[in-house]
Specification:
The chain is an alpha+beta fold and about 90 residues long. The protein has one helix spanning about 45-90; strands at about 10-15, 20-25, 30-35, 35-40. A two-stranded antiparallel sheet has the order 1-4. Strands 2-3 form a two-stranded antiparallel sheet.
């Protein structure tokens, strides 16, 4: 499965540090965000987003390891053929 890069946006708000204090029946206080304005809500950072990123990293690691193994085997095979041909023709491999 190909990795799809998610579109991640920053939250853009004025007064993001402002809250209303709401009294609760049990005597506790609840802080409710009360920004002046929000021009971009931003991308929620949640389990689904992080899992997608982690899977993309894992898939790429697997692909890199498979590619490295294939290249290593190919180089070993070509090196063996070169050494064999060098012996047959009295050439020295470097």
């Amino acid at each position: 499965m190909a990795y799809t890069i998610p579109i991640i946006k920053d939250r853009v708000a004025s007064g993001d540090d402002l809250y209303n204090i709401i009294d609760q029946p049990d005597g506790k206080k609840k802080l409710v965000p009360a920004p002046n304005s929000v021009t971009e809500v931003g991308t929620p950072i949640n389990r689904a987003l992080l899992r997608q990123m982690a899977q993309g990293i894992k898939d790429n690691e697997t692909l890199i390891n498979e590619t490295a193994t294939n290249l290593s085997e190919e180089i070993e095979e070509k090196t063996s053929i070169f050494e064999f041909n060098s012996l047959n023709f009295g050439l020295r491999s470097f």
